[in-house]
Amino acid sequence: MAKGGFSRQGGMNRNQMMAQARKMQEQLLAAQEKAATTESTSSAGGGMVKVTVTGDLRLKEITIDPEAVDPEDVEMLQDMIVAAVNEALESADAAAQQQINSVTSGLNIPGLF
Fold first, then answer.
1. pLDDT in tens, 89-102
2. What is the pLDDT of residue 55?
3. Which residue of 27, 58, 62, 66 has the lowest C-beta tally within 10 Å?
4. Quick check: 48 and 65 in contact, CB under 8 A?
């Protein structure tokens, strides 16, 4: 039996395992970087409020149609903004998870996302 508990004939040796782990780590970093720059856009109120967020969950842009601004009903505008932001964040998170899962094949690795 070789060091590390793997036989040289039937299993991976330590160097192969380390090389594979390094490769996966590089792929994970690339997927995380790609996910962070991916943008997700959502709207609410029939398109009256639009927001764009990035995969690293940063709000990038808010666009409000002037017709959505009603001084008599500010609460409705606030609700539309919250709804659009939450939907865009959920979409960005799902896109980031998809990027990571493409590398990890669905393995749950604590601390990644």
1. 999 988 888 888 88
2. 87
3. 66
4. yes
